[in-house]
């Protein structure tokens, strides 16, 4: 070991010490070496490193390039020795040397804890992780696919080693890789780098370099000089950063051969068989840039960037991300689905073929979507005045004017993620959905502050009025309208729409289709009172001094429940399925028709499911649960929750869940009581105990109506987790039909000759139940109240 390593090794020891102390030690070990390693041996290494005992690490020997070749380092498990390149030690930085030593220690660790060499370059993975660097999936997969095995000859002995990357010198180097995946760096000088087989990374550095990828999908990058790049077979990528250049860039590209040139000032790079320029950065001057025949997209790196200056950038084929940045730029997407970012300046953006995405900053811009479904997303929230938009649904064309700037667009079908100003705006959606588009951005139209008018047009739209008194029009499709604060008007129009809102006196019209109103009043400072007309699906919701008025709303709460206040509420469901939550307070909740979920939550609540298959959950408190008004053709789930609950299976007029068919057993309509507690809860039935039967099946008691003769007994309820119930016990309560009063009529005199002077007096007398008022309705000019006695 040379003396030049003496100041390096303590830094290596420090990295291992802190790694052994880290919470991610075991997870990172698994990432580098798999899951089948010897835990006992790994624990020994961890404990040794935690105590700063590094005596077990292999010794280091420095070899000439004649022996080690172009590798920076290698590890031989047969010798338990690390070999380092002499030329590498003489030219590399301390950080680079530390990284290579850690990589070889990674190979050593693998040899200690795994009986078989881990797949790929586990040493490189280990070196990154122990230094706290994260590896993305693509990099990790590439490292795991590498073949880092080779042989060297030391003192006449052939030794199998795992090697580090190939790095040249500041002179003129000729480096040839292997059939595997190689990382080759030429550094300064006029270098010749050959990757041969595999997916190689070739970096020429400064100088006039010749880079040959060979077989496989290779990656090239370079610095100054007149360079020649040949991608070879496979899909090859050339990434260069010209942002520090002192003049503009001119590029040529032949899509048939993947060949062309890049000229900046007096230097020209010539390339062949290059299919992608992902991560390419132009100068701060006027550039002409082309993409390749494959993608320059966000799936990998950073697309094509123009920098400052008036740039012309053409993506050609593939999925391209093109950034004009500053200046008056012309961006052409080309074939396939592209994303064009104009930046500041007066830009011209052409999507061409494919489903394209556009966004921009300041300036008077012109956007042409081209064919297929194109999307324009812009954020005007920082503007100093309101926005006015026009839109022609036939051509997908229109304008957006904010202050003195106007953007003009054609063939734009969607505006998802569009944000208005903090002033009064007029915004339109496109003819397609304002939804998630091309994997990027949330599909929404947002008004911002101010009194906005936003129309979604066709498609499934998400429209947010935000603050202000807004008018939101959903148009066709399944739209979601969020009014926000203020007195808003929300019109769903056609389609199955969803509405939600915040403070204010709002007017909501669902329009055609099955429409849903979702709201959360749990923040309110007083209780909620709701009305609902099942014939028109209309009603009101009043909380304090604010009242929302709605029409054509069929459901309340589905994805999220309709939430009441923390006080006493009166809540109704719609004529279709609902999810209703009362919150705290003593609430009365009625589901009406449809399959409903009703949650009483805290408080003494009264829950009525109505028609349909309902799920009622009382929660905490003394709750009353009635799953139906008749129960014919439906089954309901009843869960009372804690404390004393009342389950109503019949009232004074009928027994629920009786289908009325004498030949069936009622197995199509019944209630399921999940948590009946005989100590606390009560089941209400009509009639008397002799009208019913109990049977037991497993852990469930079945409750039947005791039908006469040969008529099948009628199932009306399953009572879960109960096997010893008695119909005469106090937890069964029976109600009967009320006794109706008897009313007699007496007329005096019983016979009279009508001469116009004698009155007939009608006397009505009740016996029995007389708690209610007796009212007589009469008509005719000869009858008056004075002639009626009501007793």
UniProtKB/TrEMBL annotation:
Residues 170-237 are annotated as: Disordered. Transmembrane segments: none annotated. Residues 170-182, 219-230 have a biased composition (Polar residues). Its main location: secreted. One of its GO terms (cellular component) is extracellular region. Residues 185-212 have a biased composition (Low complexity). SUPFAM superfamilies: beta-Roll. This is Bifunctional hemolysin/adenylate cyclase. It comes from Microcystis aeruginosa NIES-4325.
